[in-house]
Give the backbone structure.
Amino acid sequence: MSDKVFIFDTTLRDGEQVPGCQLNTIEKIQIAKKLELLGVDIIEAGFPISSPGDFKSVVEISKATKHVTICALTRSVEKDIDVAAESLAYAKGRGRIHTGIGTSPMHIKYKFNTTPEAVIERAIAAVKYAKKYVEDVEFYAEDAGRTDNEYLARVIEAVIKAGATVLNIPDTTGYCMPEEYGAKIRYLKENVKGIDKAILSTHCHNDLGLATANTLAGVYNGARQVEVTINGIGERAGNTSLEEVVMAMKTRRGDFPYHTDVNPIHIAATSKLVASLMSMPVQANKAIVGRNAFAHSSGIHQDGVLKHRENYEIIDPKDVGYDTSIVLSARSGKAALKHHISELGVEVTPKRLKEVYEEFLKLADAKKDIKEEDLLVLLGEERRSKRKIKIELLQVVCGKTLEPMATVRLNVNGEIKQKTCAGLGPVDAAFKAVKRILNDENYQLEEYLVQAVTSGIDDYGKVHVQVSYKGKNYYGFGTDRDVITASVEAYVDAISKI
Ligand code: KIV
Ligand code: ZN
């Protein structure tokens, strides 16, 4: 059995299904380039039949990358496969079609209203059809986690015979226990004819917080591809996180004598890029990439780490790219700035570089150490300037004995409007004024999070909000050295998306 575990990244497909976090094509290209630099083997770039945007993303990501395999998702439907094949035209020999169908009793009955035998026929037909276009065909048995192993083995054997070379066994609903999922993979390894010539793949969702454990159980029992997302993002509780699986296998090499082509040094920067472009903050205590993942606060631990790092750390933060050294200062030139921007996976035109450089110099005047996070903030200014709603003025009055008041002036598609409101605090007052200007009371603030970008009194405040509107969630992101301005920026960002 091969000792390589292939890393299949689905941040741009399953990860991007997070409500309200959709990326535009340029942002997807930035992430794809970063993933290629990180060393993933396959990028699932989209579900081309689902929207023109997804189709375009697969095309553009194929053009923008060089070595990585580009994968397009389909249902077991000929039209889906035609469109996926068309979208992969530029991947030239690096294209993979990922087709499949639900195999659990639940899906067979309530999704397709058909029989187990008919599902096998559809699966075979889809794989054969995809095979007309590309050599590399992956098949997924949706809801395999709740599919009986004996039937699952029949499905898998049939699609291998039809030409599938990678077999994805998704725990679509995150239902399995690690032992159960591992046993499923082992059962397929031991009972499916032809499995030795194919690769079994894990695809675990995190509904019970077991996605990483299940994925590792899969590898332990013979899977040689893992489907993962950066920061574990994805629908509901998300997918298996790339950084957790890669670092678990590396840290416990004795249990997992396999290798991946991921270079962990790029993990931190990739995580930050995804969090920033998707406006999805990483939970503070998230393994590997949370801001507290390597923070030691108790005196005993701090003392222990100072004496010998390994007393309390099983991973050196530097190995995953957390080098706290300063990257730029006020004396840095445009070339250094360009270099660090491209390290973040972002490409800028000469005109944009000039604009960012001007902003950079202003920031560097006020804040002596400029770090990667600060650059992401500067680059985010571009998104801010493209918004249809812009903040023209924000003025707040607040204090211990004062009633908090805010005056907000917005430019809404070119029309200037202004309102003043009182509130429980300055942020509440400002949000009320925004709602009053837009004359719509349906915006509900569901979540509000303030963080410092790096550290220090001269730091940027970073605010994430989640706003619900008529049953749907939208995320907004704002940064400013004044947290009230950052809050209103975030609120307006979310509302602009609505
Ligand atoms: O979770 C799942 O089953 C999926 C498939 C479409 C691969 O994402
Ligand atoms: Zn999934």
